[in-house]
Structure formats: structure tokens, C-alpha cells
Design brief:
Length: about 725
């Protein structure tokens, strides 16, 4: 929580509108103010902003009931409410970081420096033609056939003039026609209004049967209104932000009403766009009245007098042309991308490459994905890697740099995770000399999407000098649809953010898609979008090997021989002098040797050791790890035994010729069962879908890219797309229907 001087609390409170709060939240504001030393009048003045629910004297009555508790509501609650609604504290350049600070990220969406903005004068029109004002407003915002809601009648409460329900039974065309015939008498068309109160109009078209949000027929405009700055400052900020304003209306008092084009296709989209619009305005110094969010909101009607002042059109169609153009401009002007650099300027002074983290595989500050099916022991492999980096030892076949590492545990409960680390240390036979190099962040049950997790991770890791961050597994923090290329590209960008902010490698694991994987390339086995395989600098893919009975018997024989040798070494120093190398590889010969050299109690434990060795072989699985590398040459596949809980490299080559699970050897391929037409059609459809997903990493999928990926002609691709029926083709570009 950010601490603030109490004198600033009322200013912070201005970012919270009482109409947005439920009763308990409203009471919490009162409690927080009282705890911070403010008065009931401060609470009452703020509460008056919610005219619909405000009752004279209620704040003072409730204030006396706030007696204090052991756990009082404090000013911090008010600060958090404001932050939840888009308020951000202003920071000095050298401030101490808060728990929720985002490190290294600039404040987005800021276009102008509100401290240096110069006002732009707004003057009342000298030639006053009320009818022309209203007609121009209607022509700018509405189609002739659209119903318009407006209010001229009002009622008074506590000295304020409030609008009544009003009318919505006429179209813009009907109103314009009648206004053109009224000879300057607006009241004859829309009804006379109280000259002290003025009149109001709704800026979105209605269905003619009511004036609620559900009666809005097109979510075309939103209202931006702020009465906390001088009019000239409001005018300047609205124009500097280049808001796509259809009509800018002076309220006749102390605010401008900007009718902003949001062009939403649904109410849900309208809400999102208005939230974005208000967020941009708030960050650029235009404090918005947030109760104006709803699409059926009333705004001030131009062409009307209000308490001796004119409600008039200041301007129309200013700023950007439409919402999309403005949104792209706001996003683009805030980029912090580097400028292009000339190759000539760096040719003789190239920057140093990042040092290796895993020799010949991964550099420090880069990304690595470990993919595999659920039974591959991926988590154990990552724990092995974590320990290897902490101790500066070899992981599988590769030497590792030594340094500090964070392991982000998203799946296991804390106790299970810690025990796994100890079990792996024990199975590897390594002394835990550098446990200080391993930090574990246990987040089971507390994981959040990666775009929210990244800044929190960066904050915790900023000063720890980690050389690697391991995230296990990523399905717990995926943001969006894992089959969507654009959503997964956004998700993977969070890993880049962690790498660049911390200078550490990010290593994470993901699961294979369903079905047999032996016939696929290693890059296409990971579940979801092809982004997963193509985004990281290193893809390490684990796939299971099919073990036959002969190989298992051979391995069982080795294990039994090993158990016998261990017992013989324990009790005899001369047995090797009388046993040949061939006999040492024979289970039968070694059992006979044990009978000869082990006497009496020396046999104890041998039977149990042999049984344990046989069981270990029966429980082990075989795997092949393949790599797709961006920075180093491709390495030959490495074969592994997964002897729970660790992976051991097959040094002797027992697995060299073993097939991948689901992959047939070449001599079998000509004798496979003939496929039915339905099976061949399904196979072609699957091949096309796989190719489309793989090519979607380049955002635009074309006939040429599909043909290149599938190894067929453009004509064949077009034919298969036509047969599939689920894709469209437009000028060589391909997309899903």
C-alpha cells in the first residue's frame, strides 16, 4: 500500500465517485476519513456528488456511529479504491519502490504533460441562433430516422436542478423539420424549460420506447465531462489528446461536454472502450465525472439558456476521424521501441554475445521451452536443471553456468515441491553445497495470468541477480486461448519482458497435444498455437521411446549384474581376479559368483537388492530429447532413461536404434493396412490444419507458405482447402471461417 500524507487524501478521494460504490463501500470511505482525522463535513461534501442517493444530514448521523474497532478502516482503503478506478500516484524520480510498483515500465497512455498545458479560450458566440445550434447538433450526431431523447422539464432538490424523464417519441428528422418551421421558438418544438436549469439531450439514438441503457439502439458516442479544471484547460486537453469528438458543447456553467465517437458494436464493447477512454483522459490530467459512463446518459443541449449563460456548440468533428484511428494513435505515440540503427555504425564494434547458461544450448537472458507429455517427468527435469545451475554442474549432456535461480512452482503444494528438490539432490548423488542459490516461489492456488504475474515476479527478482527463472508449468498462467496465435504471441511477450528487465533466462514447460507424436516434427508437438514452438530461443522436446521385451530383459540383466557387483565389492577384494568381463555382463554367471564368494550372512540383502533392481527397470521409461536452437548448431538427439526421480543419459547407446512412440520403421511402411477414403480425407484435413497453425506464427497465412510447409504445390493446397471447407482464400491469403 502506498503511504500518502493525509492532506492529499481529499484530492485522492476526487477520483472515486460515490455513485460507483455500494452502501458498505460508502461507509468505508467515511470510516477511513474519520480515522485519518477529517470531519463529517468532508464526507458530506463528497457524498453530495451522488445526487440520486444523497440525503441531507445522513453523513453526520452515520459519523457518530463510527466508534473505531481493533481493525479500523484506514486512509489506505480510500487510496486503494482510487487506484482500482485508475488513479496513479505521482512519483518523484528517486522514490522508494512500493510493493505494487511495476519496474522498468513507463507510464502508458500519457500523451501530454498536464503541468505544461496552456489553456485555449472558449468564448460565447456573439451571434446567437439557438435553432441553428440545435439543428447542427442533431445533424451531426443522428440519422434522420433515429429517435432522440431530450429533457426540458426539471425539478429542484437541495438547490440543484435535476432533469425529469423527458421525451423520446420523435426522430431527428422530425425534430429538424419542426425546428426549421418554428421561427426561432425552440420551446414550441421541444417544450419550454426553466431558464435557471437549462435543458438536456441524449447523444445516442433510442428505440422510442424508453430512455434506459437497454433502449439505446447504437453505442455510438460517450460523454467526456470534467468540471475540476478551468474551461480553457479542458478545451486544451481535449484537443491535445485529439479525441474523436463529434460535438463539443459548453454546459453554460463550468464544464465542456465532449461527445466522443466510440463506435462500439455491443454494450460490452462500449463499456471497455469507455473505460479505456476515461483512463487516457485521467492520466493526461482531465479528471472525468465517472457517473457519465452509461450510453443513455444526458448531456447539455446546445441552443438553450441556463441561468443567464448560453449552452452552445463550441465545435464539431474535431480530433481524430474515428475511434480506431484515435486508439491506434494513442497506442503508437506511447511506444518505447528503439530507433533503427545502421549496421555500418556497429560493424567494427559488435556488442558482446550473452554468455551461455547451458553450454551449446541456451544463452543467459534468452528463453527456453521444455515440451513433452505428462509422464515425461518434465518437472523433475526442470528441478534437475535448477540444481545443476545452482551447483554449476552438468544437466543431462550439457555443462551449466553457476548462479542464483528462481523456481516458480505453480502446480505442487509447498511440501511436495520442497521434498522433490531433496529427492532429486539425493538421486543425483550431489552434495547440497549451494542451496543459497535456489529460491522457490510457491504459488499453487495463487497463480494469476502471466501479464499480471510478470510485474510481480520482476519486483521480487529485481535485486536478487538471478541468472535464470524457471516457470513450471505455464498452463496455469496462460492468458487467452492457447490455440490463438495473436493471443499466445501477447502471452509469450511477457517472457521477453522478464528477460529484458532482469537479464535472466526464462525457462518454462508446456505439454504436448493429444494423440501420437512420433510422426510429427518436434516443433509441432506442443499443444496449442505454433507460437509456443517458434517464440523461444530454444525448444527442448521430450518424446517417449517404445521399449521391446528384448531390450527390457537386457536392461534387467544389467541391473541384476550391478546389484551383484555392489555386494561382491563390499565383501571381497579378490573376486574380480577370477571373473571375466563377459561373466560380469551375465546375470547367471554373476549369481553363481555371488554364491561362490559370499558366505553366510554376506548373502543378506542381496535378494532384496536384486528384486529392487528388477523393479526399477520395470518402472523406468525411455525418452529422446531433441532441440531446436536459435543461437547454436543443432545437436544430435540425446536418449535418456527416466529412473524416477531423475533422468540419466544413455551413455552406452542401448536406446540408439529404438523407435519413437507411434513411429513405424521404414521396412513396415510399405506393408501398412490400406486406408479407407474417409481415413485419407481425415489425414489430409489434419495435415492442412497442422500446417495452418504452424504458419500462423507469421500472422498472415498464405497459399505459398502452406505449400512450402506441406511440401506440395500451390494447386494441391487450393484443392485441399476446397475439400476441407473450413478455410477461406482471398488473393492468396488463407484464414479460418
Amino acid at each position: 500500500m502506498v503511504d500518502h500524507d493525509n492532506k492529499n487524501l481529499l484530492e485522492i478521494l476526487e477520483h472515486i465517485h460515490p455513485a460507483d460504490l455500494d452502501y458498505q463501500e460508502w461507509c468505508s470511505v467515511g470510516m477511513g476519513l474519520k480515522e485519518a482525522g477529517f470531519t463529517a463535513s468532508d464526507w458530506d461534501n463528497w457524498s453530495r456528488r451522488d445526487a440520486g442517493r444523497y440525503h441531507q444530514g445522513e453523513c453526520f448521523r452515520k459519523w457518530e456511529s463510527f466508534r473505531g474497532t481493533a481493525n479500523p478502516v484506514t486512509a489506505g482503503t480510500i487510496v486503494q479504491m482510487a487506484m482500482d478506478r485508475g488513479w496513479l500516484p505521482e512519483r518523484d524520480p528517486g522514490h522508494e519502490l512500493d510493493w505494487d510498483d511495476i519496474i522498468g515500465a513507463k507510464d502508458e497512455l500519457v500523451v501530454i504533460d498536464k503541468n505544461w498545458i496552456e489553456g485555449r479560450d472558449v468564448t460565447e458566440p456573439e451571434k446567437w441562433n439557438p435553432v441553428d445550434q440545435l439543428i447542427k447538433y442533431l445533424e451531426t450526431l443522428f440519422e434522420a430516422s433515429e429517435n432522440v431523447g431530450y429533457v426540458t422539464a426539471s425539478w429542484e432538490k437541495d438547490g440543484r436542478h435535476l432533469p425529469s424523464k423527458g421525451s423520446c417519441d420523435r426522430t431527428a428528422g422530425q425534430l429538424i423539420e419542426q425546428l426549421n418551421k418554428c421561427k426561432g421558438d425552440i420551446g414550441a418544438v421541444i417544450g419550454d424549460c426553466n431558464p435557471e436549469a437549462g435543458a438536456w439531450i441524449r447523444f445516442n439514438p433510442l428505440d422510442g420506447s424508453g430512455v434506459k441503457n437497454e433502449n439505446v439502439t447504437d453505442w455510438r458516442y460517450a460523454l467526456v465531462e470534467s468540471d475540476e479544471l478551468d474551461i480553457d484547460k479542458q478545451n486544451a486537453i481535449i484537443r491535445e489528446l485529439e479525441l474523436p469528438v463529434a460535438c463539443l458543447v459548453h454546459s453554460g456553467k463550468k464544464s465542456l461536454h465532449a461527445i466522443v465517437k466510440v463506435d462500439a458494436g455491443s454494450y460490452e464493447e462500449y463499456r471497455k472502450r469507455v473505460d479505456y477512454l476515461y483512463n487516457v483522459c485521467q492520466k493526461n490530467g482531465l479528471k472525468i465525472d465517472t457517473q457519465n459512463r452509461n450510453p443513455s446518459r444526458l448531456s447539455r443541449m446546445p441552443g438553450i439558456m441556463r441561468n443567464g449563460h448560453k449552452q452552445f456548440l463550441v465545435d464539431t468533428n474535431i480530433g481524430r476521424e474515428n475511434w480506431h484511428e484515435w486508439h491506434e494513435w494513442i497506442e503508437g505515440i506511447n511506444d518505447d521501441l528503439p530507433e533503427p540503427e545502421s549496421m555500418e555504425s556497429v560493424w567494427d564494434n559488435l556488442p558482446d554475445l550473452a554468455p551461455p547458461l547451458i553450454n551449446d544450448v541456451l544463452r543467459q537472458g534468452h528463453k527456453m521451452l521444455l515440451a513433452g507429455p505428462s509422464k515425461a517427468g518434465k518437472s523433475y527435469a526442470l528441478i534437475e536443471l535448477c540444481i545443476a545451475i545452482a551447483e554449476g554442474k552438468k544437466w543431462l549432456s550439457w555443462d551449466c553456468a553457476q548462479g542464483k535461480i528462481m523456481y516458480v512452482n505453480l502446480e505442487l503444494d509447498r511440501a511436495s515441491c520442497l521434498h522433490r528438490f531433496k529427492d532429486v539432490y539425493t538421486a543425483l548423488g550431489w552434495a547440497p553445497n549451494n542451496l543459497k542459490n535456489i529460491d522457490i516461489w510457491n504459488l499453487r492456488g495463487k497463480s494469476i495470468p502471466m501479464d499480471k504475474l510478470a510485474p510481480k515476479l520482476i519486483r521480487r527478482a529485481q535485486r536478487k541477480n538471478y541468472i535464470a527463472i524457471i516457470i513450471d508449468p505455464i498452463y496455469k498462467i496462460i492468458t487467452g486461448d492457447e490455440n490463438s496465435a495473436d493471443q499466445m504471441a501477447h502471452f509469450c511477450n511477457q517472457f521477453d519482458r522478464v528477460c529484458s528487465e532482469l537479464g535472466a533466462a526464462v525457462i518454462y514447460c508446456h505439454h504436448h497435444s493429444k494423440g501420437s507424436q512420433g510422426g510429427k516434427r518436434s516443433m509441432d508437438r506442443a499443444s496449442g498455437s505454433g507460437v509456443f514452438a517458434r517464440d523461444p530461443d530454444v525448444l527442448m522436446d521430450l518424446i517417449e521411446l517404445e521399449l521391446n521385451e528384448d531390450l527390457l530383459k537386457q536392461e534387467e540383466n544389467k541391473a541384476v549384474c550391478g546389484a551383484c557387483i555392489d555386494h561382491l565389492d563390499r565383501y571381497s577384494k579378490t573376486w574380480e581376479d577370477h571373473v571375466s568381463q563377459d561373466d560380469m555382463c551375465s546375470e547367471k554367471a554373476m549369481l553363481a559368483t555371488c554364491d561362490k564368494y559370499l558366505l553366510g550372512d554376506q548373502h543378506k540383502g542381496l535378494k532384496a537388492a536384486i528384486s529392487k533392481a528388477r523393479k526399477a527397470v520395470q518402472n523406468r521409461s525411455a525418452w529422446r530429447i531433441e532441440g531446436t536452437l536459435r543461437e547454436f548448431p543443432k545437436f544430435p538427439p540425446v536418449n535418456l532413461w527416466f529412473d524416477y526421480p531423475v533422468h540419466n543419459v544413455d551413455i552406452v547407446g542401448s536406446l540408439k536404434d529404438v523407435e519413437l512412440e507411434g513411429e513405424s520403421p521404414p521396412w513396415k511402411k510399405n506393408f501398412t493396412k490400406k486406408k479407407t477414403p474417409e481415413e485419407r480425407k481425415k489425414e489430409k484435413e489434419n495435415a492442412l490444419e497442422t500446417a495452418f497453425e504452424a504458419c500462423s506464427i507469421d500472422e498472415q497465412v498464405t497459399i505459398n507458405s502452406l505449400a512450402e510447409y506441406m511440401g506440395v504445390t500451390d494447386k494441391t493446397v487450393r484443392s485441399r482447402i476446397k475439400e476441407h471447407g473450413g478455410f477461406w482464400v482471398d488473393d492468396g491469403e488463407v484464414g479460418k471461417k
